[in-house]
From TrEMBL:
Family: Belongs to the cation transport ATPase (P-type) (TC 3.A.3) family. Type V subfamily.
Start and end residues of each stretch annotated as Disordered: 74-100
Membrane disposition: Multi-pass membrane protein
Domain P-type ATPase A: 396-512
Stretch forming the signal peptide: none
Record-linked InterPro entries: ATPase_P-typ_cyto_dom_N, ATPase_P-typ_P_site, ATPase_P-typ_TM_dom_sf, ATPase_P-typ_transduc_dom_A_sf, ATPase_P-type_domA, HAD-like_sf, HAD_sf, P-type_TPase_V
The protein's name: P-type ATPase A domain-containing protein
Membrane-spanning segments: 27-49, 128-149, 181-199, 359-380, 527-549, 1018-1038, 1044-1063, 1083-1106, 1134-1153, 1160-1183, 1225-1245
Lineage: Eukaryota, Viridiplantae, Streptophyta, Embryophyta, Bryophyta
Amino acid sequence: MGHYPTGPTSCILDPTCHVRITSMWDGGPVCIFVFWVTVVLSCSTFFLWKQHCLKKHPVKPVVLQVGNLKGASHANQSSQSVPLQCNQRHDPRGEHSGVTKNEEIRLSLEGESEIQFTGYTRSYFGEFCYLLCCLVSLHWIALYILILVDTYNNCEVESIDNLCFFGNHFIFGTYELNGKVFFVVWWLSAFWFSAWVLNKGRVHNWFRMPCDLPHATFVYVWAPDQHGVLSVNVSFIVHVLRKIRSATMASKSRGHFETIEISITSSGRHYFLYQGQRYLLNSHSLQCVSLRDGYKFHEFYQGARGLSTKQADSNFDKIGPNEIPFKPETLMYTILDELFSLFHVYQLIMYMLQFWNSYLFVASLMTSIVLLSASITIYTRHHSQLAIAKITTYVTDATVLRDGVWVRLDSCNLVPGDIVKVQSDWLLPCDLLLIQGSCICNESALTGEAMPVQKYMAPNKPELYDPEGNGARHTLFSGTTVLQAGTQSGCEVLAFVTATGMSTSKGKLLSSILYPEKMLFKYDEELPIVVLLLLAYAFVCFIISIVFQNHTGAQSYWVTKWIYCMAIVNQILSPLLPVALEVGELQAVERLKAQRIFCLNPKRIAIAGKIRLFCFDKTGTLTKEGLDFIGIQSVLRTGPTFEPVKSPEKGDKIDFRTLNGLATCHAVTKFGDQFVGNQVEVKMFSSVGWELVEATSEPPCVRSPNGDELKIVKRNEFNHARMTMSVVVEDCHGELHVYCKGSFEKIQELSLEGTLPRDYVQTAHSHALDGCYVLGLGYRRLGPASSIEVEALTRDDLEMKLDFVALVLFRNELKHDSRAAIQALKEGEVRPVMVTGDNAQCGHYIAKKCAMLEPHVQVLLGDVDKQGSVSWVPMSMEDESQIHAMSTDELLRYHRKDLEGGVQELAVTGKAFAILRRSEVMDKLLYFTRIYARFTPADKVLVANLHRDHGLVVGMCGDGGNDCGALRAAHVGIALSDTEASVVSPFTSQDKSVTSVMDLLREGRAALHTSFACYKFLIMYGLMFSILKLCCYWYGIILSQMDYIFIDGVAVLILGYAMTLCYPEDKLGKVRPTSSLLGPLNVASVVGVWGINLVFLVGALCFMHTQTGYVKWPARYSHGASWWTLDDNWESTVIFFVMYFQFITSAFVYTFGSVFRKSVFLNWVLMVSYGGLLMFMSVILLLPANAFTSLWHVASEQFNRPNPSSPVWLEYQEHGGKPSPAMSLSFRLSMWWLILGNLAVIIFWQKVVAEGPVAKAFALRFPSSRPKFRL
């Protein structure tokens, strides 16, 4: 039994002590009341004045319709319309243009489609009132300090049972008055801080005056949240909650908002930045300024003389500096913002109850843990912002043409319309269009593509410029590196600045990191329901605890009873619940990093655990990056019939037209001694053994080993939409020839029918089905022509009426580990599909090789026929002329059973997909389609979105080249890239292997299961602690200080951390972890274990009552405020030890691996912690009484002995009670066996019922409603 406090004496009883406050009319309280009245009167006066002004001059927000990006306005103060010009352009010469362009934007779930702007201006009176409110917040803290000083002044600190439990109350004189003051201050401050936190970001605007935007100094921006909801099949209660939220919550509370200070340029122009976008304000409009697509190539050449200083300054004034407008928060702001969140305010308010209720050291420990956790969060947040700032911040020098003179400027001063000199080894600060010369660039930082790419001078034509389409080969993208400017040293390479700042390609990608789409998991929607249920349970416990405390007859003050009741609420509503649902992700991030998989968005890790469908690019993802050149299959002119496959690398004799086509029809260039360009073209050109000659002022030419030269006088780059590239070649006789290569389907369309072999399609398909990447090569003789005549010929003029020459064959071999990864994915109940830009036949071959398609499955290909409708034919080696094509209606009518049974699957081309999607038939075919072929980058995005719209959690894996859009559109995108963190995707794998997908999914499932395990542990902790408190209140006891330290400080922290250290299973199981907090699995796991624990607890207490030496604790002789005297009894020993073993065993059973994590026995930290606590507490229980066991007040000590040290037992004996013996060893041993039985039943329930055969049988009997498809 511990040494109880003997002092200090209360100040009111100590003649040497002077009580500072004896009445509420003393100076101190009166000053506080006067301050309160001043605040209320000042704020009321301001709000009345504000309402009067608004009634006289109403101000409504300006509304920007983001669905079509056209301005919509509301009446301003003068009831005049406010035109809203959005996405204003600046033409190449820097002149302002009012042309708008529609843009598709993903809207939020609720269908909101507007951004609201409200202007505010400062008011001296309002700022004074706001300052008063800030002082109110500080004064609550000061009052808390004052109360705690009064509570603990002169307290004793001697042992674990005498740790500064009470002071002399020299300020308020008595415990009762101190308690009343604390009660009032606690409720008022809790309301004050909760209201402030819930309205954080709005409070200051309450004390500003709304006004029209042109007169504003601040602008309040509200926008709807863009949510990706991952809970399609939700429970009835979630549907009800959605309706209640929609009906009761104002629309402005269902979006995000920001208050931004309006800045002024040097010329007096008002502007502000919102999410990186610059908005200009003037007396008649709000303009959202950015450079948009839509110019024609020849317009850029019209501005080739550069800008004047006046034009540049004007553009700079409108566009702003060339920078990503991201500034890291100051460390002080991050600290205040993190600590002043609802989560931390709730924690500190609840811990303040413990601070006051004599738990000074325990409360300090818990507060230290909270502050340590917050410090880690603050450090991580600040470090992440510094890392992003490092990516976004870049300033270099640029040589710019201004006023006709070349000058050196900081890159932040570049504006659209500038002409700059491109230099080698230059990290590009903006988007540029080449108008003179060529470059070799490394775009790995932007796309993940490791191979250097060639960039060419843009054509001077009236053709629309699309930087991500037909202009990609001419555009130098911000964030990429120019390896070599010009083909030789001394070449002058000029480029036109097309976009700066956030409008650049890098800026658009970074915006997805800075302002990501929010992903709402099922548990995100269910967590408020869980909180409401816990609140209801806490309210019931609150009432019961009052009844129980009155039942014991203890001499407790009403504030003390209220404190004890609030302690139950604090334990039930654990402040750590939201954190528990994220802890698994934090450990997974580090494990993924060790596997060279880097994560930019940890939230997506848990989402990866629910993926049901994964899209794969083919080339460079499932297959090796390079292609092997197989050879060519030329056409005999006499036939026309195909020759056998030949290869110039083997010395085979090749037709001169074919050989010339291989040597010239490409965009290969040289970087040092290395050929640079598309790997297909590099392999093709290398096979002929010719020399590439590049001169400064001459077109490139190729030279054969015997000295013949062919000059490439014009080149049309490869275009994804056309699926072709072409060149105009001049031979040594001055004759001009056109060579065009592209997909074999496109070359068939462009070639004269008489030059095509009859078995053209069958032969091309047979090569593709054999795994070849097949290109067609066409030729046309132009004859002699001048350079002007050649330049005048359009691409359509050149790529027509071709003579078919040959099929060019490459083989794209499967990566060695792709097949095993796809098989493992299917074994894990995840459907893999292929989305490729290659032809369907090659996709079919790779799908068969990697086991994406089963060997027995027949694939039906959907393509657009000559009539423009979609027809379906089997993919086989047979002559397609003998195969009957069927319509989509026939497919669904006659083949649906085979499709549903997995006997047949579908492949669809990009053209067919577009038609099927428009007619909504694709929705019916989606789950039967395995291969998406000839898909452009935009088409790949549509595939990902279509699966998302059907309620599937979708993943995408690609090399980051033409997959950037799809990688961002999918719920989880992983780029196979050499870079450590690619901005195109939430995840980046440096191993460049599809096995990284397996690693990510394993970690995702394990992280989700770990988070739910920690969640269940905290829920169980709260539920069991509430029962512990109720039992204590029923008997009128309180556990010892050491008991609480071991529960809160040891069990929860050590075991809670150890639970997160479980590793994922090596293989994916056939099920995914639940994401429902209210699902049967989690409910059964929590409620079942809780019920079992209650049964054994009641059994232990009943067993205690049967003991002959047991005497019930005489609570009527105790005082509730002196809680340290209430633990010297049998009841506290039985309750603590039974429930402590239940606490730690719940952590053990909730860490069972199931099929998502490795066995709990492999988590050595948890096993050592759990085993150590199990043995340690068993020893404490069974040892005879000694100084060590007395720290826990174990009943092996005779508390009710003659002349007891306990004041309660002493008074009991003074009123006629008899001494009673200590708890016998036999009883303690029997109780220990009862505890072990409790643990065994819990383990059985969790392993057999909640997560074992019973749960599996239940899942089979009542399967969840979700889309069904073949794997």
